[in-house]
Amino acid sequence: MNLSSPDTPLYNHPLPEIESWLLSIGGEQDATKLHCWQVSQMYWSAQLCLEVEELTVRYLKATDDQQDVYRSFKYSLSRQDIEDAVLAGP
User: Fold this and answer.
1) Cβ atoms 33, 46 nearer than 8 A
2) What predicted TM-score, i.e. pTM, was given to this entire model?
3) Would 6 disulfide with which of 22, 31, 43, 80, CB 3.0-4.6 Å?
């Protein structure tokens, strides 16, 4: 599937495009919470959830004392800006 321009706000992407994008960044959809995706990189893993007004990110055990780090991104941000921020890690 062709994705919209990376500069397009995420709210202008149809759901199948958002799901394709999440797959392209290594996401795996949660089988029980279909609005959530797991993304893992070399030094971190995170749960991304498509909420009503924003994309929430929970970096798992991201601090020295193994606490989770939470971030949220409004859908008005471009897909590229969100991708860059999420993949930068905690």
Assistant:
1) no
2) 0.90
3) 80
What lies within 8 Å, CB to CB, of 85 at 6+ separation is: 71, 73
Which of the four pLDDT bands, split at 50, 70 and 90, describes residue 2?
confident
Q: How confident is the model at residue 3 (pLDDT cuts 50, 70, 90)?
A: confident
Count the residues in the chain: 90
Q: Which residues are within 8 A (CB) of 36 and not within 5 positions of it... i.e. 6 or more apart?
A: 29, 30, 47, 48, 49, 50
Asked if 8 contacts 81 with a C-beta cutoff of 8 angstroms, the reply is no
Given a contact cutoff of 8 angstroms between Cβ atoms, the answer to whether 4 and 17 are in contact is yes
- Residue 1: its pLDDT value, please? 65
